[in-house]
Amino acid sequence: MLGNQWDPTTSIQEVTAWCHSWLNEEIPLAYIALDNGLPIGMCSLEDNDGIRTDLTPWLCDLCVVKSYQNKGGGKLLITAVKAKAKALGFHQLYLFVLDVAVMGYYHALGWDNIGEDLYKGHKVNIMQIDL
Fold first, then answer.
1. The pTM is what?
2. Chain segment 106-128, per-residue pLDDT in tens
3. Structural domain includes residue 4
């Protein structure tokens, strides 16, 4: 992965190896979006994303290959993570964004900004959605 983008030359074997232990039914877990067997995106559900241990669970690691962005793949991955969190009995889901410009994307999907924190020395915005 490169930031929030997936390196399109990454093979499905490399992706599977990277998150093999997360391809399960318990947290932490990951979803991988494929197109003709090639990874085009991923998203994970984690207990915590390194901040605010009082909040759980977290939507993490959303990334989509640049050529597939703005085509609904990210929204499908988010929907899958939300559905799994709800099925596990959670009522809220959290995420954080480093780039304030990305907040508009999540706002459009129903997420609310609930505060700020620091992650590895960088200011981040914490967002929440009711499930």
1. 0.82
2. 999 999 999 999 988 999 999 99
3. no
